[in-house]
Amino acid sequence: MEANTRHTGRLPAAFLTPGSSSFMDFLTEHQPEILPGNRQLPPLQGAVEAPHGTTIVAVTFPGGVVLAGDRRATMGNMIAQRDIEKVFPADEYSAVGVAGTAGLAVEMVKLFQLELEHFEKVEGATLSLEGKANRLSTMIRGNLGMAMQGLAVVPVFAGYDVDREKGRIFSYDVTGGRSEEHVGYAATGSGSVFARGAMKKLYHDGLTEDEATTLVVQALYDAADDDSATGGPDVGRRIYPIVTVITDDGFRRLTDDESAAIARSILERRMEQPDGPRAALL
Asked: Any idea which residues are catalytic in this one (predicted)?
């Protein structure tokens, strides 16, 4: 697939060959060695030490979906990075949040973005939200060899379904198994057990957008409270969770000031109630 440098402006033959609308299929046919899952790792003894991203949460509300993540990456018992970004737009109406091996996760997201853009350019139409979720499942499955060596990537995919006119959430396992979260919320990563417990008690069907953004930050706070690999709001360094909202208007990431305002209001209330808001018994 190397370009012919003797003739300026001429595309390599691979780009002129009719084929699939999948960018992954294109790479598989013409240059499979650059796909993450096809790379050969050197012989290893024990687990691979690499920075890992942790907790991702998502919540639906009437009119859309919120996807958020904390900012900490760990390597063993050390904090590898305090301000890592784990939530990215996939296209205009969807986003993906990633937990697991940080470097591979970011690379997979970029490849997924190219996959969706390539399909749209070739076919002249966008994939359905279901189709996007299936494409991501295939990409995760292609990374199975590395996942078995400890380099796993486990995302949460969320978006606004323009056909059904509602927000939807899809979660995955390391083998590429995909499931839609019909309960209205989802979490992945090391703090997901605690985040899911918080969302289970606070979630209800009639959430407003503002309530949904507050709920995900509350859930991340609870995850950070019990999971050392999850980072809570860092007021001193002005590092706050990444919160994104996807509606029929498209993808929007809350500004740092908006995220800070939510986090600070939660911190003030936690001074009075350290364990957070209480759900009614009945």
From this structure: 54 (nucleophile)
